[in-house]
Amino acid sequence: MTAITATEAPSLPLPLPLLHSTVIDWYEASKRDLPWRTPDATPWAVMVSEFMLQQTPVKRVLPVWRAWLTRWPTPADLAAEAPGEAVRMWGRLGYPRRALRLHAAAVAITEEHGGGVPDDHATLLSLPGVGEYTAAAVASFAFRQRHVVLDTNVRRVFARAVTGVEYPAIATTAAERRTATALLPDDAATAATWAVGVMELGALVCTARGPECGDCPLFTACAWQRAGRPPYEGPARRGQTYEGTDRQVRGKLLAVLREAHGTVPQARLDAVWPDAVQRARALDGLVADGLVEPVEQGVYRLPQ
DNA sequence: CAGGCGTGGAA
DNA sequence: TTTCCAAGCCT
């Protein structure tokens, strides 16, 4: 029989409690001072940050997050508004369907959960726009519960430090989840700090490009470092073109609707893209997604 | 489950 | 300039 299977992950040459304290101590000394991490940040404030941070960098999220929480300090405040107001407030964060889903989540919280952000993972997962990651993040960061929080940062840290490869697979694997589960501290409060600490390590030090290994608290333990930092060997990562896609057209159309207050005539939309077929397809898509509402023939607006 | 879904900044 | 990436979700 073979001695070692290919899927068996090497483990860190570090006792678990020492691994935990190493990352947590580094986090306490090096963490960014982000407003959704302050003690007075409400679960709603945490949840809003998680929606906005899905695929959008912290720097761009900060001003929108502040404006959002000022205008809508509770889920009920947002739920009382038209979804189009959420889309407008979302501004240029990208993926505006997130704004619609956040609004829908606020409605569900208000109407079905007594107005408070749910504190259990399963209920969070049932909300629009909340997937496995966001449910775990809100439960962990806002309610200090013990959950595997597996985002792109954490996956990269574990890929390097534990498995010894430069990048994780494109899709999350069962093996990754087992690794993350095995490393999770038993105590809930410690697990919550560990989760945010590993994420922060991935965001600040163990970055996708140009990791600052000299500053890494796991430098001597890291499997990738010990293996001589072998380059990534997996399949090419999906490089998406953007110029000329429907996504770009949708973005241009929605920008017109966002910046206009009230209705917009067809001609204003026609001006943003020369190809009438693609333009119509993009507009149809926006309407189908609920991001745009037809008012009458040739007149559109954000959803009321 | 692979692909669609925005936007802007850094390498 | 081009490419890659940034706390994913949904179908």
TrEMBL record:
Q: Which PANTHER family match?
A: ADENINE DNA GLYCOSYLASE
Entry EC no(s): 3.2.2.31
Molecular function (GO) terms for this protein are: 4 iron, 4 sulfur cluster binding; 8-oxo-7,8-dihydroguanine DNA N-glycosylase activity; adenine/guanine mispair binding; metal ion binding; oxidized purine DNA binding; purine-specific mismatch base pair DNA N-glycosylase activity
What does the similarity note say? Belongs to the Nth/MutY family.
Protein name (Swiss-Prot/TrEMBL): Adenine DNA glycosylase
Q: Give the first-level EC class, as a single word.
A: hydrolase
Any one GO biological process: base-excision repair
Q: Which organism is it from?
A: Kitasatospora aureofaciens (Streptomyces aureofaciens)
